[in-house]
Amino acid sequence: MYGDEIHLWLHHIRAERLRDEAREASRPHRRSRSARARVLRARVGWTLVEVGLRLATPRLPQSGLTARFDH
């Protein structure tokens, strides 16, 4: 029958497309970071540097005037 041949032909086309998709998915590919992700990463990095510097810097002794108002 004519319809059976078309049906089989469509199955072959679909199978070929699925094989192509599987082949493409199995290839290792490198994703580049978006500009927004790079900006966010830089901002977080500099924030961590700032926090680290604040933790590493010794505090200055408080003067007597400010010590009285801390209570």
**Biggest sheet features:** none
* Low-pLDDT residue intervals, each spanning 5 or more residues: none
Shape from CA axes? rod-shaped
Estimated helix fraction: over 70%
Distance between the termini: 97 Å
Mean pLDDT: 83
Gyration radius (Cα, Å) is: 32 Å
Write down the secondary-structure element order.
Answer: HHH
Give the strand content: under 5%
What does this structure look like?
There is one protein chain. With 71 residues, the protein is mainly alpha-helical. The protein has one domain. The protein is built from 3 helices and no strands. The chain has helices spanning 2-26, 35-56, 64-68. The longest helix is centred in the first third of the chain and has 25 residues, at 2-26. The radius of gyration is 32 Å and the shape is rod-shaped. The model has no long low-confidence stretch (mean pLDDT 83).
Structural features:
rod-shaped; 71 residues
Brief characterization of the structure:
This protein has helices at 2-26, 35-56, 64-68.
Set out the fold topology.
Elements (H helix, E strand, L loop, with lengths): L1 H25 L8 H22 L7 H5 L3
